[in-house]
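Example noted here:
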Amino acid sequence: MSKIKIAFVGTGGRCNAHLDGLLRRRDEFGDVEFAGFMDIVPERAKEKCEKAKEGKVYTDYIEMLDSAKPDALVIAVFPNQHGMIENEAIKRNIHLLMEKPMAIEKSMAEDFGEKINRAGIVTSCGFQDRYLNLTEKIRELVVGRKVGFVNGAWIGGVVGGLEAEHWWKKYSTGGGQLLEQNIHVFDQIRFLFGEAKTVFCTGGRGIVNAKNYDVHDYSAAAIQMENGISATVYTSCYPVHGFAEGSGITVYAENAKIDYKLRSHIDYSDSTGTTMHIPHASKRDWTTELDYGFIKAVKTGDKSDIKSDYFDALKSLKLCMACTESLFTGKSIDIAGY
C-alpha cells in the first residue's frame, strides 16, 4: 500500500492535533492522502480541507465512507456520538484511529471489540500520553525498585466554562470528568504498573455552580493493583487557581520519589541525594507519534509502534467505567469480573 487514504469524522479540537501530525507525515514520507472531512458543521470541515489542500467536505459519514473510500478513519466526536460511525466503518473493513473515550456505555464498547476482532482491522486509540518520553522515563526510573504507592490526579476547570452549553458538563453526553478526561492518568498508571484488581471511588458535588451541569465536582479512586501496588487517583473540576500544579502522577518507590507533572516534566530524588529535573523532550509531539505508529501499522502490518490498540484501550475505559459506577453506588468493584 503506497498511500493511505484517510478520512475524518469530527473536525473539532482533537482533529486539529491529528491533522497536524498526519500533514507532517505526508510531507515527511509522502504516504498519506486526505480523502474527506465530515462534520455536522460544514464550515469546520471546510477549514480542515483548506488546511490539507485536498479532500472533500461531507456532512454525512456514510456518504463519505462510500464515496471517498478511505483506508483509515479518524474518529474524534463527542463521547455520546460513538456507535453507528464505528459499526459502519468496521463493516467496510476501514482501519480506525479512535479518540477516547471510545464509548460511554460498557455494552457498546465491548460490542466494538468483538466486531473489530472479527474484522481484523488495525486500531489505535487516543492515549497519547503513552508516547511521551516522560512516560518511558518513569518506567526506567522504577526499574529494580519496589513500588508501594502511586498517586495520580487531574485537577482542572469546567470545560466550556460555567455558563456555556457544553457536552462535557453532563454525564449523558460526556460520561463525566473521570471517564472523559482523567482517563489519561488512569491509562498511564495501567501502562506503567499493570492491571487493577479492585476499585472503590467516592466523590461529591455542591461546589461548582454551572449551567446545565450534573457531573461530580471531585472524586477520589482507590485502586488495588494485581501486583500489590496501591494507587489513588484524584479528579476535580472545581479549582480555579493553580489547578495545573496538581495534575500528574507521583510514584513513591523504594528509596526514591518520582514526581511527574502532567505533560511537562519529572522531578526525581532518591536516598543517595541524587536529584534530577527532566523536561519533556521529543522530536515530535506525542499525538504525532501516535499517528505515525498507526499509519505504519496500516501500511506495513507492523503494529509494534502502536502503544494502545482498541483491546488494550478497552481495559482503561472499563477501569474508568468501574470507578464511575463505584462513585454512584458506593460499592467496591472487582475488575476481573467487570
In short: The mean pLDDT is 96.
